Amino acid sequence: MWLLVGLGNPGSKYSKTRHNIGFRVIDQFSETHKIPMEEKDSYMIGRGTVDGQDVVLLKPLTFMNRSGQAVRKALRKFNKLSDKLGDVLIVVQDDLDIDTGTVKIRKEGTSGGHKGIESVIQETGTRNFVRIKVGIGRDKSVPTDEYVLAQFRPSEKNQIKDAIINAADAALAVVREGTDKAMNKYNRTIQAGRPGR
Predict the structure, then answer these.
(1) What pLDDT sits at residue 120?
(2) Which of 6, 8, 9, 19 is catalytic?
């Protein structure tokens, strides 16, 4: 079983912000693979089968800096909470240090200052889980907290639309082919646009 988590903040106020790209990728995956989502406890959750693999989709409703609480609850629910989550947990996040629209896969690592990832590490007790990073770029003229909670500019909309599809496809590649093969395929993509299949 794979637990695919998208990070974001609940509520319509945040739905189209840069910080909510993880939620939008989960919505894309849910729609593409016809996995319905429902609200339970502190998260939105959906369960389905994709290419013979059990996949659970999760959108924490605890706000970004407490995302790990919902992740921990879901892992416990499915008896998957351990210090080795590399073959169980995929987390989709926004990333300020990657160009807008670029998608990258990483096996493990630090939070890089991302409060949602930091919460997941703290609550699970491990850095050993797959991250799918969607670049949102930076604007040095705008404070970081303000920038991540702002909507994308009109000029970025097409890039982000492609990035959401690419990130959902990258998650599928991890599930279907394993992390190493998925990384080889997606980490060569420099800018938004569909990688070769």
Answers:
(1) 96
(2) 19
